[in-house]
Amino acid sequence: MQSRLPGVVWPAVPGQQGLLLAALLKQLEQSQWLPAAEIEQAQIRQLNALTEHARRHSPFHAGRLAGLPPDQTQGLREWLSAIPVMRREDLQKRRADIDCAWMPPEHGAVSLAQSTGSTGEPVAVRRSGLNGLIWMAMTLREHLWQQRDFSQSLAIIRAQFATEDTARRGVSSADWGPPVNHLFASGRSYGLNLQTDILRQAEWLRQIMPAYLLTYPNNLSALLDLAETDPDQLAGMARLKQVRTIGETLHDSLRERCRRVLGVGIADVYSTQEVGVIAIECPQGGGYHVMSEGLVFELLRDDDRPCAAGETGRVVVTDLHNFATPLIRYDLGDLAEADGPCACGRGLPKIRRIRGRERNLLRLPDGRRFWPLVGAFGYRDIAPVRQYQIVQRSLERITLRLAVERPLSTTEEQALAEKLVEFLGFRFVVDFDYCTPDIPRGPGGKFEDFICEM
């Protein structure tokens, strides 16, 4: 632990934020091992406080929660089922009514958090200092679960580094920054803009030789493509201990490639701007544990009933500590697969995998919808394709967007179209759309390899 008090090295005395984080981490270390029933009872108590506040100070929630008893005595799921699901469009069109006219000043300063709008529909949420504190605590929990060595160096390639100088040279810091530096001494960290050319990224990694790399899955995939084409590009990742991914759907095929090419594993984090950290990977049992101390997590089928283990459903969350813009049974528009209890013994609920956005479901003329595992589409076996994106425009047509190393022949296009039709299991008409030099990313630098625009 790092001391923030001048003249005191040992025992360490953290600053105010560090003390608060240390107190939360101590509780999180204990609460993760509680039985699921005890965790649920604690959630009910916090949910009572949240809903009573929302009922009094939010016009939107006053109507939604009017029929609920002031003190919850039923089971959590039964009580939640009586509350209508809150949609993204509610937050976009009625946020003035959703926002609370008053909130406890002890929750700290309020700021506006805006989603990147990967669906083309960004939303904004007011979040307090308390929300930020809990986000930092969950982030530190993830670091500690993964047993990262803070004395080592960290490289970050993401959209937040946006200046021209950053794009060319990157930035450097003496430590890992918040929340790590509130409690721990650490090695240097380095940041580079996500839009930086992939060859420049590889050169930058060779210069800093990091122990840990944080980036988006599709950017990692591009680095692995480069490393497989030119093994010398592996030099900058020779000291890697782990890759940490955020922001996009992580396919199992990318985990396997990373292990095969770089010899290290991936730790993925599921989070959103609206509610913070939702789930982190279990270091022992695989899959993702829900951060139940901060939110109530539901996976709902099409009939709004809870998913059983192995079923895929819509992600609906309740942020237990947002008293500024209460998000109660908020549908994120994401899909995930439910799981049963974890072998690690933690009582926190389990997600088997994050499927992605609901808009990523392929639609067939007979009404069926399913998740196309496009991460296994073997495009490079057919043609020199650097990057691809599949877009469904109608029930009969698919557009294959490509960034290529050279123009493709008619034969190569036909082979790619046949492979894609075979892969998707339906004889779509395949249109080609070539992008130069790269396929544009969505807002916030995120990239989706399959999009249904219907």
Structural notes for this entry:
- The strands form four sheets. A twelve-stranded mixed sheet has the order 4-5-3-6-7-8-9-10-14-13-12-11, sandwiched between helices. The protein has a four-stranded mixed sheet with strand order 19-18-17-20, covered by helices on one side.
- It contains twelve helices and 20 strands.
- Helix 1 crosses helix 7, helix 9 crosses helix 10 and helix 10 crosses helix 11.
- The mean pLDDT is 89.
- Among the domains are: 197 residues, ANL, N-terminal domain (Rossmann fold, 3-Layer(aba) Sandwich); 91 residues, 2-Layer Sandwich (GMP Synthetase, Chain A, domain 3), CATH 3.30.300.
- It is globular, with a radius of gyration of 23 Å.
- It has 454 residues and is of the alpha/beta class.
- Helix 12 links the parallel strand 18 and strand 19.
Mind describing the biggest β-sheet? 12 strands, mixed
**Into which percent range does the helicity of residues fall?**
25-40%
Poorly predicted segments: none
Specify Rg, calculated over alpha carbons: 23 Å
The CATH class of one domain is identified as: Alpha Beta
> How does the overall form come out from the CA principal axes?
globular
CATH topology of one domain: Rossmann fold
- CATH architectural designation of one domain: 3-Layer(aba) Sandwich
CATH homologous superfamily classification of one domain: ANL, N-terminal domain
From the N-terminal CA to the C-terminal CA, the straight-line distance is 52 Å
Mean pLDDT: 89
Determine the structural class based on helices, strands and strand pairing: alpha/beta
Strand order, sheet with most strands: 4-5-3-6-7-8-9-10-14-13-12-11
Strand percent estimate: 15-25%
- Helical segment tally? 12
Number of strands: 20
